[in-house]
């Protein structure tokens, strides 16, 4: 299904959002890691392991969905620390991933974009059932015209075929798309695919000198949306 593009002064645009960390606050999983490992800070190591494993299975063409990778990474972190975990613990990891709240400013900024008629879509590493639950539980699913998942192409961002699949599903040209993400590897993948990109520099997130340069950078979704709307209005 094609999504109706918004047109500003003859220029079409659609905004595609990453989900985990960009829209949803995974720091709310910290109490789970505090319980198992004695420190909520271990959650950061876990998510870095999740991303690393996702990249590895993509390179090896050995796809496993993001929820399963999250469980596998949790098990690996436990093994490194000599902590025993069981099957019921893995279910708690998945449940925590499904019930993440949005960052504090997210609902208000999605509402701003909606009021300006900007079409919005999600593109995430989470499989379809998981992202649907995530957006519904976060009470933001109604903002989006479509939910896209890498599961359709069995590879994770920033694989080129993920972005190409999104273009096909949306029925749009690469130059019409803006990706909003808090991950430098995601914005770099989008830029490489010919998309426009906006980087949300949340705490602990930064751009590398090796990354493609996003056209918009902001410390929060407020700053990013301010710049997006200013850019759209001037084109």
Structure summary:
The protein has helices spanning about 30-35, 40-60, 65-80, 85-100, 105-115, 130-135, 160-170, 185-190, 220-235, and strands at about 5-10, 10-15, 120-125, 145-150, 175-180, 195-200, 215-220. By secondary structure, the chain is of the alpha/beta class.
Q: What is the strand content? A: 5-15%
Query: How many DSSP E strands?
Result: 7
Instruction: Give the integer mean of the pLDDT values.
Output: 93
**Shape designation:** globular
Low-confidence segments, given as residue ranges, are none
- Please summarize the sheet with the most strands: 7 strands, mixed
| Computed CA radius of gyration, to the nearest angstrom | 18 Å
Helix-strand makeup class = alpha/beta
First and last CA, distance: 26 Å
The string of secondary-structure elements, in order, is EEHHHHHEHEHEHEEH
